[in-house]
């Protein structure tokens, strides 16, 4: 049969040297993963033929997989904060003028030259008042005075079984303290006369520059990722990030829960427009918005991913729930519309929605599916659009890769992203059916 079967050490990522058996590292049975390698491709993960074939060929090794993948043990690590050097001179500061920060965990082994950069999310501030009070956010969303060490989990985790493709990469979690998706460049004045710094773009540039010096500049592979407002930032910056590296370096982007839709809410209005309009104007985001869109549409409309993805040229993976809990709560059923008890319980938990409400939410899903049609024709892109009521699925062990992880095509998110990342010849473009069709959407997922 026209296929060869390899066992790879699961740390190997997409290293082409693994295409020959002799080039493989010594390995222990505990860390093996199966690789099915079609002759023409550069795939580095099991693909194509069914698990059944693998079971027949390599029964003992295949038998090891489930207990290892699903074991309960976690290897989450707390990673300290590094403040950006020379932040004030570069004007790359948080809303309150303090230096921004990031958490860096060094890679090891064959991951030492690979870099994963995660841009944190956390909504936006769209008015002077919002941005002023955000400076006091105890989560540090406007000031590094409140930033604490954080736990690395999910795609940032160090457990090889839970995170086989990225566990030993250099991993960076960039703190979000500008309120403008790492994209603004302006100043404002708070009510009390103090200066408000809208410097997300400078923060992004200065942090990447500093990381370049710390080894990112020598990367052989890099993945720019982020969640929510950080997922949106990932789309805004994917191409300019890619442009910082020589052609032979593999650069990809993964936008998690950043696919914000321009939709009408339960009142029939686009209440959310005021947020995006406020951010774009107050924080001066024009520089990062696609020029061809700005020529035709209002700036706020060009801040929506449905517009952004049309012009992105780098390989991108879009991970989102078609019933994204954040968008249901803040875009579709915003508190400002004083929703009745029934809507409140529906946005609290999708299980509580009545049939009229589900129809409305399915309309939202259909808009997302339509907006993603352009991805069909984008060859190196990946999709994982599940129907679970959740938000931010890469940075949580449970969603990323566990018995409770949402599955599409029987793949967990970690498996789907891994297959896409390794340039599998088979498509990794999965769109789930309508809620509640997917039995893998569990109650264990982050709400
Ligand atoms: C925010 O913090 C500043 C200085 O730490 C303080 O003066 C101000 O009253 C605080 N504002 C709010 C709304 O808590
Ligand atoms: C990049 O690699 C070169 C050659 O190995 C080395 O001299 C240099 O210090 C490295 N730079 C960084 C930022 O790691
Ligand atoms: C569902 O709840 C909404 C909001 O309260 C209400 O307008 C609608 O009539 C309800 N639909 C059904 C089928 O109960
Ligand atoms: C789905 O994946 C699980 C775990 O990887 C495996 O045990 C199961 O047999 C697969 N099911 C199908 C239908 O392929
Ligand atoms: C992942 O989500 C679950 C469910 O909400 C939560 O209990 C757990 O603390 C989360 N883990 C991390 C690392 O955030």
TrEMBL record:
Key words of the record: Cell wall, Cell wall biogenesis/degradation, Hydrolase, Membrane, Secreted, Transmembrane, Transmembrane helix
In Gene Ontology terms, what is one molecular function of this protein? hydrolase activity
Grouped into one coarse class, the protein's main location is secreted
Among SUPFAM superfamilies, the record links this protein to: alpha/beta-Hydrolases
Q: What is its EC number?
A: 3.1.1.-
Q: Name one GO biological process term.
A: cell wall organization
Q: Where are the transmembrane segments?
A: 46-70
Instruction: Name the InterPro entries on file.
Output: AB_hydrolase_fold, PAE/NOTUM
Task: Write out the annotated subcellular location.
Answer: Secreted, Cell wall
The entry's family comment says: Belongs to the pectinacetylesterase family.
Q: State the protein's purpose.
A: Hydrolyzes acetyl esters in homogalacturonan regions of pectin. In type I primary cell wall, galacturonic acid residues of pectin can be acetylated at the O-2 and O-3 positions. Decreasing the degree of acetylation of pectin gels in vitro alters their physical properties.
List the protein's name.
Pectin acetylesterase
């Amino acid at each position: 049969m026209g296929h060869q079967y390899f066992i790879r050490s699961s740390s190997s990522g997409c290293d082409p040297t693994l295409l020959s058996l002799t080039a493989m590292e010594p390995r222990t049975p505990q860390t093996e993963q199966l690789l099915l390698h079609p002759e023409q491709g550069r795939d580095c993960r099991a693909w194509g033929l069914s698990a059944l074939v693998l079971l027949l060929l390599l029964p003992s090794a295949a038998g090891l997989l489930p207990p290892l993948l699903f074991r309960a043990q976690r290897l989450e690590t707390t990673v300290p904060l590094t403040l950006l050097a020379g932040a004030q001179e570069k004007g790359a500061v948080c809303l309150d003028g303090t230096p921004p920060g990031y958490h860096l965990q060094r890679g090891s082994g064959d991951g030492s030259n690979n870099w994963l950069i995660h841009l944190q999310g956390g909504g936006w501030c769209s008015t002077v008042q919002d941005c002023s009070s955000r400076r006091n956010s105890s989560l540090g969303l406007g000031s590094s005075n409140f930033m604490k060490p954080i736990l690395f989990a999910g795609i940032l985790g160090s457990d090889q079984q839970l995170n086989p493709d990225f566990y030993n990469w250099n991993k960076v979690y960039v703190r979000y303290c500008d309120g403008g998706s790492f994209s603004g460049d302006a100043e404002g004045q708070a009510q009390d006369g103090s200066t408000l710094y809208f410097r997300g773009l400078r923060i992004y540039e200065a942090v990447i520059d500093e990381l370049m010096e710390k080894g990112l500049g020598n990367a052989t592979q890099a993945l720019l990722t982020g969640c929510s407002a950080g997922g949106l930032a990932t789309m805004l910056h994917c191409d300019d990030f890619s442009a910082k590296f020589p052609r032979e370096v593999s650069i990809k982007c993964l936008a998690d829960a950043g696919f914000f839709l321009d939709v009408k809410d339960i009142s029939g209005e686009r209440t959310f427009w005021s947020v995006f309009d406020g951010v774009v104007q107050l924080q001066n985001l024009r520089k990062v918005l696609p020029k061809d869109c700005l020529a035709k549409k209002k700036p706020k409309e060009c801040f929506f991913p449905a517009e952004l993805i049309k012009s992105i040229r780098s390989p991108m993976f879009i991970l989102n729930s078609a019933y994204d809990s954040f968008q249901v709560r803040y875009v579709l059923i915003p508190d400002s519309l004083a929703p009745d008890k029934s809507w409140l319980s529906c946005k609290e938990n999708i299980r509580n929605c009545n049939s009229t409400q589900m129809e409305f939410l399915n309309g939202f899903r259909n808009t997302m599916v339509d907006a993603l049609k352009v991805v069909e024709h984008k060859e190196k892109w990946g999709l994982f659009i599940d129907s679970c009521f959740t938000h931010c699925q890469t940075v949580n062990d449970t969603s990323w890769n566990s018995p409770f992880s949402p599955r599409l095509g029987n793949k967990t998110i970690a498996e789907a992203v891994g297959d896409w990342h390794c340039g599998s010849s088979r498509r990794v473009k999965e769109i789930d059916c309508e809620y509640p069709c997917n039995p893998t959407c569990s109650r264990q997922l982050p709400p």
